[in-house]
Amino acid sequence: MPTIPAQPIGQSDSFHALLDRVSDAASLDRPVIVVGERGTGKEMIASRLHFLSPRWEAQFVKVNCAAFTDEMLDRELFGQTFMDGQDDTNGRFYEADGGTIFLDNIDTLSPRLQEKLMRAVEYGEYEAGGEAHTQQVDVRIVTATGKDLPAAVERGEFRVDLVDRLAFDVITIPPLRYRPEDVAPLAEHFGRKIAGALGAESFPGFTPEVMVEMETRQWAGNVRELKAVIERNVAQAYLRDETLSSPIATLNFDPFDGPYRLREAMSPPQKTAPIYKDETAPLGMPPETGPNIENLPSAPMSETKTSFAERIMVFERRLIDEALQISEGHQGKAAKYLDLTYHSFRGLLRKHGLKK
């Protein structure tokens, strides 16, 4: 009996809409492309497509196409027949017969392997290296990419007919920065898991201020980055206090930060052509080069003496006051005006000493 994978975690509308899309696509037994930024959980979605499908009791085979050279990937996918006494290899398509094969980073395939994959998708057949006859397989193909495949087609880097075959359905995972409501349950899950692994009796969670900081962060690495940050900071808190008695009040987002951090020397600036130009300027007239920086008004002296953190606090307070004024003091409406969750907005009020 196959092991059922971990369930995805979230509570935002876009997250639930994503799960609905996956459930619908799982039953169709057709190729699917999963698209998403790094760290969004493309493999988890592919796994869910398999385990919600009629093929769930068969093999779910995963291959990271970016981890192999062209020849190695050919052998990995389609196998190799040797004539010198070496043991033949069957390949991942053979292993996945009756089940699902997940090809991650499909955008890295060479033109030659795109051609071989095309036959596997179109006819369910392939040729192993060193063999002249074809082998038949019954495999559902799920692929994933973090790149713009249509743009790769336009550049001539990827076959348009292969994209047409693979894209029976395309599921795009929304980045974490577009679903801040999912940060809290994910952070709690990762925090409890690492606390339990360290032997802590309980996990106290995070202060509201820290939660606001996490919910308003851009998270370029998405869920994978969030997990790394949570695990690192909970482990450090555990080393300071094994009881983990107090909610975590500060987070270190950059493990490389410190007084002795190594940094590459900055190369001297290169002279380049003006960025802004007026292509319609009459012949012989100088092009527009944008605003003259020397003539721009400088910031007031009082502002330049204010620290960056203090200026951010002032700006946040202005936004809070504006939202409360427009919503006539209704905190729920104010949170919606700022595109924040109610929990995040209450955390900001507490941060600025305004919570009643």
**Unreliably modeled segments:** 272-304
Given the structure, what is the number of helices? Answer: 14
* CATH evolutionary superfamily of the largest domain: P-loop containing nucleotide triphosphate hydrolases
Q: Identify the overall geometry.
A: elongated
Which class best fits the helix and strand makeup?
alpha/beta
Question: What is CATH's topology name of the largest domain?
Answer: Rossmann fold
Major pleated sheet: 5 strands, parallel
Total strands: 7
Tell me the β content: 5-15%
Helix content: 40-55%
Which key terms come to mind for this protein?
single chain; 356 residues; alpha/beta; Rossmann fold; Helicase, Ruva Protein, domain 3; 3 domains; 5-stranded parallel β-sheet; two-stranded antiparallel sheet; elongated
Quick summary:
This protein has helices at residues 13-26, 42-51, 70-78, 92-95, 111-123, 149-154, 160-166, 183-198, 208-215, 222-240, 301-304, 308-326, 331-337, 342-351, and strands at residues 32-35, 60-64, 100-104, 125-126, 135-136, 140-145, 169-172.
What would you note in describing this structure?
The chain is an alpha/beta fold. The strands form two sheets. It has a five-stranded parallel beta sheet. Strands 4-5 form a two-stranded antiparallel ribbon. The protein has three domains: 13-174, Rossmann fold (3-Layer(aba) Sandwich); 177-240, Helicase, Ruva Protein, domain 3 (Orthogonal Bundle); 305-351. It starts with 12 loop residues before the first helix and ends in a 5-residue tail after the last helix. It has helices at residues 13-26, 42-51, 70-78, 92-95, 111-123, 149-154, 160-166, 183-198, 208-215, 222-240, 301-304, 308-326, 331-337, 342-351; strands spanning 32-35, 60-64, 100-104, 125-126, 135-136, 140-145, 169-172. It is elongated, with a radius of gyration of 27 Å.
